[in-house]
Design brief:
Blueprint lengths: L3 H15 L4 H36 L3 E8 L2 E8 L28 H14 L3 H15 L8 E3 L2 E3 L5
Antiparallel strand pairs: 1-2, 3-4
Helix pairs in contact: 1-2, 3-4
Length: about 160
């Protein structure tokens, strides 16, 4: 999705608003529009990302993401699971015995996705995380899919 037409409309609106003030005010508006473009672009991307998150919560079996390629935003729809097949359930967690407390730091977007997913499944975030960790330990899968290290940079694909 090309954001340039939206930014051009904003620039034209600002120029039209400044025009009655004369040449000096119009020049100031032109300079202001140029310096505001990166911020406006980020605001548009935030709005698109929020819209994609909202759409994802309404979809069953699919997710919508906004990806940035250069200066272009693109929507990507991924099928998370066939709508007719129930999600595979990890083995039951033994809730008996001692309980330990840990601190877990998550990126805000991932935290929000975990909260939405847990709410959609009708369980607490803690119960959802315990089940997810138990499932990962049970399958032996402990890292992100197809990630590899190149120097100090980690690349790969993550899906919540």
């Amino acid at each position: 999705m090309d954001l340039t037409p939206y930014l051009d409309n904003l620039r034209r609106d600002l120029a039209a608003t400044a025009a009655p003030g004369g040449a000096e005010i119009s020049r100031a508006a032109e300079l202001l529009a140029g310096s505001l473009e990166p911020s406006a672009r980020l605001c548009l991307l935030d709005a698109l990302s929020d819209a994609a998150d909202e759409i994802t919560t309404q979809l069953s079996g699919a997710g919508v993401e906004v990806r940035l390629r250069g200066r272009q935003a693109e929507f990507v729809v991924t099928e998370t699971q066939p709508a007719s097949a129930p999600a595979p359930q990890p083995p039951p967690v033994d809730t008996g015995g001692d309980v330990s407390r840990i601190t877990l730091r998550l990126p805000e977007a991932l935290k929000d996705a975990v909260e939405r997913t847990a709410a959609a499944e009708g369980v607490s975030v803690n119960a959802w995380l315990v089940r997810a960790v138990a499932g990962a330990v049970h399958t032996g899968h402990t890292g992100p899919p197809s990630s590899h290290r190149s120097g100090r940079r980690i690349t790969g694909f993550a899906q919540a």
